Amino acid sequence: MALNAEQAERLGQLLSTHSDRISQRWSEVAAAPLKGRLTVAEAARHTGELQAQLRSALLAGATGVDSVHSAELRALLTELSRSRARMGFTASETATSVFALKTALYEAADVEKGDDAALRDYVAWSALIDELGLFTFEAYSRAREEIITAQGEQLLELSTPVVKLWEGVVAVPLVGTLDSARAQVVMERLLEALVDTGSPYAIIDITGVPAVDTQVAQHVLKTVMAARLMGAECIISGIRPQIAQTIVTLGIEFGDIVTKASLADALRHAVQRRNADQRAVKREA
Amino acid sequence: MDRLPILKIGSVLLVSIQIDMQDQMALQLQEDLGQRIVDTGCKGVIIDITGLDIVDSFVGRTLSTIASISRVLDAETIVVGMRPAVAITLVELGLSLEGIRTALNVERGLELLARSTEPDTADDLELFGDPETASS
Amino acid sequence: MTTSEATDRQVQAISSDEDVVRVRQLVRTAAVAAKLSLVDQTKVVTAASELARNTLVYGGGGSAEVCRVLNGSRHGVRIVFTDSGPGIADVELALTDGYTSGTGMGLGLSGARRLVDEFHLDTAVGAGTTVAVVKWAR
């Protein structure tokens, strides 16, 4: 709790009586560091909403950012931080919009000409505004984290296309370094593609993968085992000599998994197997 | 106790598991299927688990047992429609479903049965003469 | 156990086959609410199924407490299985792949451990068994 009840009430009243003057000054000071990236009108709308919400929170009895009466104020601050983060403003620029209220209050309350009581009030209000600013900062960094996570996921999706090569054959050409997270995504998407296309053969082409470690090799092996459980066969193609060496050195058992030198060889193998399956069915039918 | 329905389509028995089974229900299925194989003389069984959102070691073991029982009764069991998330989980769990044949969907399962349940070709039958043409 | 806030705590007694199904459903609901990926949901529900059955078969019944947990910005699901059964004499052995004291495939405990992110086993002979597991959203 930043304030006592009387200080909160006095701030609420000040925000009401000098409403126009404060909102004018607040939006001015807040807009200054944004250097035209946000229109004055927009900045004014944001500070205006904050002012209205802060006033109603205080008059309802809020004494700090954690008060039950501040729930809507917190929601508004979070929303503001999110939209600023998405628009590319820095955390300081975002928090400054809140801190600008200090200047507006200092002038509106006429602290310079006031007595000790006025100064004490101002110090307490400042503490409240600091709380609000810190809250904004936290919300901003959470929003940034979410954006980064979402972008990471989008990148993963883009970097692992699963393509249908032939009737009954899907392939995933892997390019670039495979880390554990990406290997996991590849595995899931490949298995999904088997179901969606009803393909009993899958080719994992690792021509574009510069190196594998134990974990990645394990993921590939698990994919092959999972595909078998679902009733599909995997073929691994494009294993470079260095990777073959790593696999053997690490003691990873590839067992009876079919490996082919190139994607073309793997496709030929899969199509031949597929045709043989269908001939067998026709003969019996 | 609810029982899972076993459908007979041509010479194939089809079970589609659509609900989160209690253990007892899985054991009941194991019993019922054995009986139906003997009653119908079917040579193929397809168990569709598209509707199962998890397969734990108990269900996995029951499926293995069903496959073994049907093999003893001269019928082939194919488990079809396992979801990717279930397959990944089973691999992590360390369950390999030893002795179970699988296919992506019912259609592929039927193909697999067609390939494996009748290894005798028509040529072999001719040695004995076709009983139907002989009698007519 | 990781310091974390727990919400939506629910307790399910485990004394029959049906209860094992109920535990699975509770865990599924919690996993969806914690925004776990489909694969992670499947893993944690499967682990819960194994452990609930252990509680029923080897612990002679008990309970499962399911709750959602939050650690920083990471969501997760925590399940605590408690029974007052005979306990486990050799924990190392019980966690070995293929070990079984009953009719299972011997994958119950060790398999469930591989499916979750955190696994705590607390047991003593004659004093029952408590297994706490957590699965975090990726």
TrEMBL record, chain A:
CDD domains recorded: STAS_RsbR_RsbS_like
UniProt xrefs under InterPro entries: Bact_StressResp_Reg, RsbRD_N_dom, STAS_dom, STAS_dom_sf
Occurrences of domain STAS (ranges): 159-270
Signal peptide (residue range): none
Highest taxon, organism lineage: Bacteria
Pfam families reported for this sequence: RsbRD_N, STAS
UniProt keyword annotations, A-Z: Phosphoprotein
SUPFAM superfamilies in UniProt: SpoIIaa-like
Protein name per its UniProtKB record: Polyvinylalcohol dehydrogenase
Gene encoding the protein: rsbR
UniProtKB/TrEMBL annotation, chain B:
Cross-referenced Gene3D superfamilies: STAS domain
InterPro entries: Bact_StressResp_Reg, STAS_dom, STAS_dom_sf
Domain STAS, residue spans: 2-113
Pfam families cross-referenced by the UniProt entry: STAS
Family matches, as PANTHER family: RSBT ANTAGONIST PROTEIN RSBS, RSBT ANTAGONIST PROTEIN RSBS-RELATED
Protein name: Anti-sigma factor antagonist
Gene expressing this chain: rsbS
UniProtKB/TrEMBL annotation, chain C:
Top-rank taxon, per record: Bacteria
Annotated signal peptide: none
InterPro entries registered for this protein in UniProt: HATPase_C_sf, HATPase_dom
SUPFAM superfamilies for the chain: ATPase domain of HSP90 chaperone/DNA topoisomerase II/histidine kinase
Location of the Histidine kinase/HSP90-like ATPase domain: 39-138
Pfam (any one): HATPase_c
The protein's name: Anti-sigma regulatory factor
